[in-house]
DNA sequence: ATCGAAATTGGAAACGTTTCCAAAATCAAG
DNA sequence: CTTGATTTTGGAAACGTTTCCAATTTCGAT
């Protein structure tokens, strides 16, 4: 099992170079106090033996692993994978490698993942907690034993965070629809206890109020980030007698559900109902008609998260880092004035 | 920097339990030869101190890290992230954590990633090499120093692999189109030096031959897995005088490009041109019209890759593992008989 | 009670680094 | 040359485990 019986170690390098362990280590880490001639000899020996340092041993001794973890609810989906990709791209040049794991919306599982990463001596965590309310997960963070960056979440602790201005996004969507003449505007979003949903609801209600439109609870559907949930809600909404003339779909997973419901009820977008997507993607961009969406810069969000975490590791007591990413509305062809009669 | 000054170690547990290191270690690893009463004492001490073993130290001593890496060209995209997710789900219960990294189609970068993972003592690799031809990457595998599973690639070495039957898939697409009356069928796929493309081309040509249709090189466009490439090729193809009546788009990234080209040329799918997608996804499923695609079970592919790698670690000299995943054609509404005149 | 076998136990050694300290070599100034 | 300061060097100790071996305890049979 134990591969690497034949691995060359720093001792071999020292022997071949005819120098001591200390000197080799100093060369490896670019430390001062090593004669130019010795450095050359060490480098030659390294080259000759094909030596490369054992990062596990290094972690062991140094107490840090140059390793980060990215924990989300679910990787299946273009946005979170784009984020992971961006994070990895950002931290790789700094010598870090990235673990990823999904909690599948299960706080229990999430906790187990965090614990295991802690045991692996991961240097830091980028995490979109499955819930903002789970006390077990919260208390795992409370002791401050693990540097972390929150991804689109809001926790009571004073943690570094990158967030998207979903409230602003929802407001942009409502403004746009109102300007087209809509008054009965529905919102569908996912899990009620996470930042993206609470913010969307807040932005939606505030925008309605601003336009003097009464908020009807029946039009605000919040539950779970799944295609099925979105489908059911959209179906119920669009099938009702006083159906909304527009739907704001929060989150990527909502869009397919809404489209399917509209299709099954033989409602044509945007003639019969207007739709604004809560995040951009291939589906929104290339479907017919292309869908108006609220979007933001995924890659930059990921890079920022990675950078925040790297900063934090360098300066554990530095000031809290936060950034709220603005959204923007991309008008395409899924919104039109409301139909006359219904 | 060195967090964890206060961490509790196996020595503390031994002291509190009033037993030796060996005994504690035996309890931790469920080894035999430990008295029931001692076991209880150790467990109590662990509980009391909140001890959890340091996985880095364990790796150090054991020579294996319980860590795997997943290296692909690009994570942005639903398929590869679904695969990563499946791999992670499969290996997590076995105690493994998963690193991910993108090579961005750059063999140089890919090599650097592999080297770093080796230095991290990763136990194994699941990899979709950026090219099947790069000698540097090949030779890195040749020494057999790292167990690995190939993902949709074919290399001369006798390596474990999971692959998709893209040749069969392309043939299914061609058969379907021919049965509708098409004769001028184009294929667009990505990088020419990787398994999915070479197989698609092979399947495409064989199917054409089987139907007695002459292969026209101009209709077979192969280059890069990018939306832009697909767009350009589709635009050229559909804008030509003898334009194809059907296009087979190999790979997810191809689809948006083809759709956009058709849209800009004001060609209606499937009236003016039929389209078969080379992989399924939200876009294909929910766009209007829904697109006929060739697909396969992404999650099962990922799980199998994970399982193969775990098997290999358990039995380094076991028989070579391979699996070719069948594709199936999902008829939707993007294919129709060819237009009469063009 | 006594003996041999089996079960249980403790702790040194090892894994491959980096860090630290003391020793050796070099240098500059007198 | 001598001396004191500085640079360079070597190697023991430490990081937290597991493994191994020898020592001790327990057990069963006589």
UniProtKB/TrEMBL annotation, chains A, B:
Which CDD domains is this protein grouped with? HTH_LacI, PBP1_LacI-like
Q: Where is the HTH lacI-type domain?
A: 8-62
Q: Which InterPro entries match?
A: HTH_LacI (IPR000843), LacI/GalR-like_sensor (IPR046335), Lambda_DNA-bd_dom_sf (IPR010982), Peripla_BP_I (IPR028082)
Q: Which keywords are on file for this protein?
A: DNA-binding, Transcription, Transcription regulation
Molecular functions per Gene Ontology: DNA-binding transcription factor activity; transcription cis-regulatory region binding
Any keyword DNA-binding? yes
Q: Which SUPFAM superfamilies match?
A: lambda repressor-like DNA-binding domains (SSF47413), Periplasmic binding protein-like I (SSF53822)
* Keyword Secreted appears in the UniProt entry: no
Q: Pfam families, from UniProt?
A: LacI, Peripla_BP_3
User: Residues annotated as region Disordered?
Assistant: 311-342
- Protein's recorded name: LacI family transcriptional regulator
Q: What organism does this protein naturally occur in?
A: Lichenibacterium ramalinae
């Amino acid at each position: 099992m134990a591969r690497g019986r034949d691995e060359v170690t720093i001792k071999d390098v020292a022997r071949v170079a005819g120098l001591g362990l200390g000197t080799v280590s100093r060369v490896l880490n670019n430390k001062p106090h090593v004669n130019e001639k010795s450095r050359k000899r060490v480098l030659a020996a390294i080259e000759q033996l094909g030596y490369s340092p054992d990062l596990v041993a290094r972690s062991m001794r140094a107490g840090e692993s140059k390793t980060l973890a990215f924990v989300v609810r679910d990787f299946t989906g273009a946005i979170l994978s784009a984020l992971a990709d961006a994070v990895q791209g950002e931290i790789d040049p700094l010598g870090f490698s990235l673990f990823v794991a999904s909690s599948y919306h299960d706080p229990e599982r999430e906790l187990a993942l965090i614990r295991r990463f802690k045991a692996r001596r991961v240097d830091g965590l980028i995490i979109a907690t499955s819930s903002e309310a789970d006390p077990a997960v919260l208390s795992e963070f409370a002791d401050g034993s693990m540097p972390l960056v929150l991804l689109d979440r809001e926790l009571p602790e004073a943690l570094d965070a990158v967030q998207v201005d979903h409230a602003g996004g929802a407001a942009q969507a409502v403004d746009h629809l109102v300007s087209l003449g809509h008054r009965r505007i529905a919102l569908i979003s996912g899990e009620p206890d996470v930042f993206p949903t609470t913010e969307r609801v807040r932005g939606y209600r505030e925008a309605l109020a601003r336009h003097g439109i009464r908020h009807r609870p029946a039009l605000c559907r919040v539950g779970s980030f799944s295609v099925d949930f979105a489908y059911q809600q959209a179906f119920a909404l669009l099938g009702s007698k006083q159906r909304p003339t527009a739907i704001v779909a929060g989150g990527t997973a909502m869009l397919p559900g809404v489209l399917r419901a509209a299709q099954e009820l033989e409602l044509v977008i945007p003639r019969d109902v207007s739709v604004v997507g809560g995040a951009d993607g291939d589906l929104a961009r290339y479907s017919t008609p292309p869908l108006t969406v609220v979007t933001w810069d995924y890659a930059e969000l990921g890079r920022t998260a990675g950078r925040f975490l790297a900063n934090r590791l360098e300066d554990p007591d530095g000031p809290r880092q936060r950034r709220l990413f603005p959204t923007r509305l991309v008008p395409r062809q899924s919104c039109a004035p409301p139909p006359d009669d219904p």
